[in-house]
Specification:
Layout: E1 5-7, H1 9-12, H2 22-31, E2 35-38, H3 39-51, H4 56-72, E3 75-76, H5 80-95, H6 102-113, E4 117-119, H7 123-126, E5 134-135
Helix pairs in contact: 3-4, 5-6
Length: 143
């Protein structure tokens, strides 16, 4: 299996939203075998789920996380190489007066050091990172 894409939380959570984005669902169906998630994304997903009150919604999300996300996508670590790239980028961005949220930097670093396209519905959040390829599966491609 060759990985090409690193999925952000906005993409992974879309199929379980009240109104799933059909473009995201289609891309996941077509490219799911080429996708991974970052450890910080897994954290965001599990944290968000565990914050919910016990009930049908939380049970459905727990099942989705275990049976779909964890079963289908490798979870890539935030390791020393990623931490070094992230530290360099964080310092560069702060020097420019354009700091980025810490978790976004971790996710960007994992995508960058693994040579993966970061897929997100929030392209603006990741546009400031240098040498990071970003794709938005929630909208139609430009003609």
């Amino acid at each position: 299996m060759t990985l090409r894409y690193l999925l952000d939380t906005s993409i992974v959570s879309s199929p379980m939203s009240r109104t799933p984005n059909p473009r995201i669902v289609q891309h996941l169906d077509e490219h799911g075998h080429e996708c991974a998630i970052a450890a910080p994304v897994w954290h965001e997903l599990t944290y968000g789920c565990r914050r919910l009150a016990r009930g049908r919604r939380r049970t459905a999300l727990e099942t989705y996380l275990r049976d779909v996300i964890q079963a289908a996508f490798p979870i890539l670590p935030y390791d020393a190489v990623a931490a070094t790239w992230h530290g360099d980028e964080r310092a560069r961005l702060e020097h420019l007066g354009r700091p980025a949220p810490f978790t976004d930097g971790q996710i960007a670093a994992i995508a960058h050091v693994n040579g993966l396209v970061l897929v997100t519905a929030n392209v603006r959040d990741f546009a400031r990172f240098k040498d990071l390829e970003v794709a938005n599966w929630s909208v139609a491609p430009h003609a």
